[in-house]
Design brief:
4 helices, about 20% strand, about 140 residues, about 50% helix, rod-shaped
């Protein structure tokens, strides 16, 4: 009996196995690549939120500084400065003054590279930054 007639019922089974393994490999690579992109976006969002909070923390009353007096942080100017920083970085977020602190929450949305093939087209991450508002004197 010839070898070709012996395995005739198994034709195409390797193709299904290769197809399944290829799909699993692509999904694994997608998770690795897009997971790394998500981690980088989280780092970026946190850095932007922290820098926006620092920018807001420097919103001292200029008139008091010019007069050589103790200068307090002006909360409305602090919020405006932090919001301006977020806008300049092209990042959305929320800014609030809580007591003697300015709190910034930033959000970054990044498109996925591989996971769009399974319906996950983008990921959104949030970063958080806080600065203490200290008066200069």
């Amino acid at each position: 009996m010839k070898a070709t007639t012996l395995f005739r019922g198994d034709r195409g089974s390797i193709s299904v196995l290769i197809l399944s393994l290829s799909a699993a490999l692509i999904i694994g690579i997608g998770i690795a690549v897009d997971g790394a992109r998500k981690a980088q976006a989280y780092s970026d969002a946190t850095a932007v939120a922290e820098e926006a909070a620092r920018a807001g923390g420097q919103a001292l009353d200029v008139a008091d500084l010019a007069a050589g007096q103790d200068a307090a942080v002006v909360p409305a100017q602090a919020v405006a400065a932090a919001q301006a920083y977020l806008e300049a970085a092209d990042v959305t977020g929320d800014v609030a003054v809580e007591g003697d602190r300015i709190v910034v929450d930033a959000a970054i949305t990044r498109p996925t590279v591989f996971l769009g093939a399974i319906g996950i087209t983008a990921t959104t991450v949030h970063g958080h930054g806080v600065a203490t508002l200290i008066s200069a004197g």
